[in-house]
């Protein structure tokens, strides 16, 4: 690959959680995932590379594309299947074509973590205007987590849902930073925060800020 190419995100989700899968279904323009499916998120720069990578992934496996997005700087795509082995094979094929290893991806870093207790009714109304997931109820505790590269936020949200009984309010996974909003009791939000942070920090990769 050229020196300007970046494998920004290579993120495997072994089992999509119910709320996460439902949220993805509200925003995707491709094949709809369902809970329990495995998924792979890959983000690259320059963005136009995603068209070639999606093509080889779906031609050589039974994985199906849910998203294929190119924005100003980066491109991202998602593939999923009921078979974990098919998703892993699709990822392997992409890496082989790029002549890269998984650990040559960019390691995620957490830009900010905010826990907001006893959310004010006006704050809740503002957030509910743009959310695509559950409603934020006044008085609840809210978690806002921001990380880069952006597509890693999907992995963080899925792991947070695994780790605690919280509600997914919204995920934004495009651009330079990814963000997620979760709501629940204070104890559950703290548990979800720890699950998301630990999952992101455990991923290998190349440091880049």
Short description:
This protein has 209 residues and is an alpha+beta fold. It has helices at 18-27, 49-60, 84-98, 121-128, 152-163, 186-201, and strands spanning 6-13, 38-45, 64-70, 75-81, 109-116, 141-148, 167-172, 178-184. It folds into 2 domains: 6-104, Alpha-Beta Plaits (2-Layer Sandwich), CATH 3.30.70.1710; 109-201, BMC (bacterial microcompartment) domain (Alpha-Beta Plaits, 2-Layer Sandwich).
What does this 3D model show about the protein?
- The chain is α+β, with helices and mostly antiparallel strands.
- The chain folds into 2 domains: 6-104, Alpha-Beta Plaits (2-Layer Sandwich); 109-201, BMC (bacterial microcompartment) domain (Alpha-Beta Plaits, 2-Layer Sandwich).
- It has helices at 18-27, 49-60, 84-98, 121-128, 152-163, 186-201, and strands spanning 6-13, 38-45, 64-70, 75-81, 109-116, 141-148, 167-172, 178-184.
- A hairpin with a 5-residue loop joins strand 7 (167-172) and strand 8.
- Helix 5 (152-163) crosses helix 6 (186-201).
- The longest helix is centred in the last third of the chain and has 16 residues, at 186-201.
- It starts with 5 loop residues before the first strand and ends in an 8-residue tail after the last helix.
Task: Please name the defining characteristics of this protein.
alpha+beta; 35% helix; 4-stranded antiparallel beta sheet; globular; 209 residues; Alpha-Beta Plaits; 2 domains
